[in-house]
Each structure stands twice: as C-alpha cells, then as structure tokens.
Design goal:
The protein is an alpha/beta fold. 37% of the residues lie in helices and 21% in strands. It has a 7-stranded mixed sheet, sandwiched between helices. Strands 24, 25, 26, 27, 28 and 29 form a 6-stranded antiparallel sheet that branches. Keywords: ATP-binding, Nucleotide-binding.
Amino acid sequence: MTLTLPDGTAAPADAARDLSALFDPASVAVIGASNDQTKYGNWIAVQALRGDRRRPVHLVNRRGEPVLGRPVHRRAVDAPGGVDLAVIAVPAAGFADAVDDALAAGARAIVGITAGFAELGEEGRQRESALAARIRQAGAVLLGPNCLGVLDTTSGLRLASNDMPAGPVGFISQSGNMALELGRHLERDGLGFSRFASLGNQADLTAADLIHGYTAHDGTELIALYCEDFGDGRAFARAAADAVGAGKPVVLLTVGAGQASMRGARSHTGALTSDLAVIDAACRAAGVDRVASVAELAHLLGALHRNRRGGGRRVAVIADGGGHASLASDLAEAHGLVVPEFGASLTSALAAELPPSAGTTNPVDLAGAGEQDITSFGRVLDLALSADEVDAVLVTGYFGGYGGYGEALANAERATARVMAEHVRAHGKPVAVHTMYAERPAATELKDQGVCVFGAVEHAAGVLGRIAERSERPAPRVPALPNPAAPATADDYWTARELLRNVGLPFPAARLVHTEDEAATAAREIGGPVVLKAMGLLHKSDAGGVALGLADETGVRAAHADMTRRLAPPGYCVEAMADTTDGVELIVGVRRDPRFGPVALVGLGGVFTEVLRDVRLALAPVTAAEAESLLARLTAAPLLHGTRGRPAVDVAAAARAVEAITAVAAAHPEIDELEVNPLLVTPEGCLGLDARLVLGS
C-alpha cells in the first residue's frame, strides 16, 4: 500500500520525516495563549513556560494582553528570532490564519490542538486536508489537528495539557486520558515517558511517522501506543517491525473487537476476519505485543524495561502458603507456562533449606520458613534460578509483609530483597514477584533493584507468559506487496478457478458449458461421477446451485434442467467428482482490508466453516513456511497429521497452495476477496474443489 497525501500525491510509506522541530525545537510559540484556566491555551502555556530556560517561549494571542504575567505578541511573525514549533489552540474558524502566521514565522512543526475538522464530516475533512497540504508544501510537519499536545522529557519540551512523569517510554496516543492513566501507572512503577505525542486526526503525521522518530531517538527504550485508526496499516506494521528489529519493543493497546465494519462481507473469509483479528495478524507480522487494558500495558512495559533477555516456559513457583502456590500454578499454566515437577537433585537441595513440611517438588511452599528465617527466600530463589530445568521464577504470597512484625524482621526482609535482586541479575532469567504488600519497603526495594513486582498474581503470571512467548517469535516480517498483475474482469467461479489454476493450484478436470447438450457431452468426456455447478452465484451450495455425484448423462441433464428452471444462471461448470476419502477440507481466503491490505485466512473448511470458526490470519502474501505455521496453530491441526486410523495428509502441499492463493490475491488489488473452500488436502497432495472471488466496487 502507498500512503496518499492530503494533496492527492503519493509518498513512500516508509519515508522518515524530520521530527526534530516537533520534539526539540529551537523556539516555541503558543498561539491562542490564554489566562482562562478552562482553556487549552492556558494549560499548554503553563506547561510551555516550564521549559523557557531551554528555549525561547513566545505567547501569542490576538488581543495582545499579558498572559500568566508574561508579555505576548499579537502574531507569531512578531516573535524575535522566529518560531521553530507552533502550538495552535484557537477556535476552528481562526485555525487557517494561525497556520499561515506560524509558517510565515518560520515554523517547521505545528501542533494543532484545535478541533472541528475531519471528525465533523466531509466538509471538515476537506478543510483539514487542504491545511495539511499547505503545511507539507512549506516543508513543515503537522501533529493533529484535534490533538492534545506533545512532550519530550529528554529535551525539556512540555506542550501537553498535563504534567507527565519522565522515563524510558515513548507513547503515541489517540486519547489524552489514556496517556494520563498510563503515566500514573508508570510513575508508581518508577517509570515514565521519554516522549508523548497525541495523534489527533493524523492529517499529516501518522502513528508510523512517530514510531520511526521514536526508533531513532536515543532516549526512548520502549514504544507504546493507544491507536484506534491506523491509517496506512502496512506502513504502521513496517515501522513497528523496524523498531522491534532495532531492539525497541512495541506494545499496542487498541479497540475494534466489533463486527461493524464486516457487515458488508460477502464471503466466509469476510465474515471471519474481524477488525481485531486483522490487527492481531499485523501485530504478529511486526513483532508487536497487543494488550487489552492500560494496566496490562503498564505491567508489560515495566517487565520489558527490566528484563528483555527472554525465557522459556518452564517456571518455578515459590510461595509462602499452599493457597498461593496452587493458585499461582494454575494461573501460570493458563498463561501458557509449564510448572514441571523438579528432579531429585533440585528437590533435595530445596529440602535442605526448608522445614520438613515444605513442598519442594514445584510449586515450592516455604511452609512458614519466612517467619522462621526470612533469608530462606534468597537461597530458594538462587537454587531455582541455578537449575537448568527452570526458565523463569514466579514468587507469590506474603513477602513484603513480614516487616510489619517488627523492626528487626523489617530490616532482614529488606536485606533479603537486595539479595534476591542480586540473584536475579546474576542469573539473567525472568523473575516476577507477586506480593500482597506491593507498597511496603521490601517490595519497593525489589522494584528499585530492577525486579518486577506486582500486586496481583495474575499480572505476574501474565507477564512471564508474555516473555516466554516473545522468546519463541520469529523475526518480524511484514510482507511486501507484489506489482499489480493484469486485472480480473469477471467474478464467476470459472474466472477464480482459472486464475488459481494458472499459478499451479490443481483443480479437478472441468468444462465451462451453457446448454444441456454441452453439459452432457462434457460429463461423457470427463468420465466418472461429476459435479454440476451453476455460475454467477456467490454461495452456490446455499442456493441449490451445486449437484454432486452425477453418475451419467441422464443425471446431468436432469440437474441442468432443474437449475435452469430455478436459478437461470449464465452458465455451468461440469467438473470431475473428487474422491474425498482420507482428505481434510480447508478454507484458504484473502480479504483486502482497507487499512492493512490483503489479509490471509487459513482454517478448517467445508460447509461448517463459519460454525466452527477454526481459522488463523496473517498479512498476505504468506510464504509456504508461514503457511505451515498457520496450519500448525489450528485447533484441528491433529487431523492433518493423522488420527484415529486416518493417514497424515500432505501439509507441505497445502502450504504451497496457501502461498499461491495469497500471492494471487496480493497481486490483484481489484479483488476484495478471494477464497478456495474447500481446499481438499490428501496424502497425495491437494485439490481446489471450489473458489470464489469478489471484485471491488
């Protein structure tokens, strides 16, 4: 996909924009500065003046009255030395004039706080596009409009309505409240923002542009997003993949679980590819972690800040109570982790450190050892981390609360926390500590020493599960789209069949016919049982446009006459009846998403596809290796490898078919949906038994 600019021209989706004036400007002007504490012009002016020791800050309003006790200019062009970055917080009617003023003052970046553009309808969208084009033509960039500001704590730039904590996280958001909530979570965890940018309407700068800028920013260690509109989704995915490849994790919070945009879907593929499923496919391609809440976003960012060295799925659970031990073990397994029984050597070593009543086989129950000898936590953690059979450790329960029993135990608990942190650093394996007392001194000591601490055990288990899953991911790969092929001009079964057959996907022998006599002749020439399919119907089976197992010419003639009477189709396909014995029916489809382009779907096929909904998605085109991975993730995957006396089918042939189908769809931008259902996979190979395509309107 190519990004279409507001002026109608095309620009390379991956072209990096110069964002230096947006995040580290030489000077700032707040146009619309105000003394009214209910207005953004006041809030942003207050924050801007906090950085006036780093750069000149010019306050601008038409009345020329002092603001916050500071002199103002009536126009930005009156500011001595010019303006590098202009923040515009004026009513929509005055926004265009303010833009002209800012550009005349030399602004290389503009932040549009003003609302009242594309969010109001087509007329507003046209005005917004014209302004964005004007700003681009002047060589500047626009953030917004309808945004909430920008912040860079590494350059001392604070041009958002609220103060936010400093730290290693670069945040991009379409919601100001999300930024404020995330900031509160991060601050409690000793973290904060390196940069924050409010996307607004993305009339010019997009999420992809900002990700590129954050990737190149030395002060940003992790990139987080709250995004509802991805614009050019492929550009977003490519930018995120570049960030992940550069060692900067990208974590996304989004919405879109609904089916509203799929109401017009005209095939099984369309009905099964929800917005959120498509976003997940893009995230997998780009190596992005998607989360479901602000709290989960904050927890994962904190964990990735403290440990990105990866870890496997075998987790040791250490608890100081049987209930916490059992609950944590269940939660760990629910998050894809394994709580293996320890071998004799580790079990014996643990038993030597703990009371006779302790559990030592995993989970480990200290059984009161905390009260008797708080230092046992450190020794048990060291033993678990030292074991080759352990990839990660989950500590859960009361640790952090023992200090409440007296000063001596409080001091010992804090000292033990430091020892535990030393073991975590020495072994380099992921460790998550859940404590009922996450704000007490020992827990704070653990956090200060770089250990992940959680107030809920489910959060601790979830983070360890995520870290384990991350260690198994392939390198990010967002597939490139091929050059467009000669467009398809018809949308019937025969066109779809031949389009796919020409790239090597086998179909049964067939003839395209119109009359009853032609159908009978075709059946005789093909030989054996045949299928008669009516052309011009999207869902032929549902409409009664398919007759199976026609053994002779008489049957073919009867079926032809019946369909002609009921359906009056423009033509028919007479096709050899396939032997489905020992075969597995799959569905392979591609839908062209308006944001992310062609999206491939692979799943269990046949007439119950939409009932079973056993499907997996990926950005198209997919390679054969990626197709095998998709097939392996199906719930029905065991059917492909033989079960209950059935032979294994040729998975490699199925994967090659998926590769071919998705390549065709990706090369035909005029095709909205392309589907083979069923694709019959047998021990000898695969065969397309039906195909459909939907052309764009």
